[in-house]
Amino acid sequence: xxxxxxxxxxxxxxxxxxxxxxxxxxxxxxxxxxxxxxxxxxxxxxxxxxxxxxxxxxxxxxxxxxxxxxxxxxxxxxxxxxxxxxxxxxxxxxx
Length: 95
What we know:
Layout: H1 2-21, H2 32-63, H3 72-94
């Protein structure tokens, strides 16, 4: 427990020293926490926009190589599922 207190005291001393040595930049950002949050939000919005801008051409290029929507395998699966659906409806109607 004593080592933890020492660690906290050292950390507190370091913070005080940093405040004394740091230049006063308060004129740059009058509302510091909100300015930092706004900067982070702006950076995230920019990265999102840039990522979307890069992805759209890739999606368009990929769409040229897609298979047709309904292949023989999916058509067969569709028939089986339709038959199961019809059987379930008949059982519900009989019950």
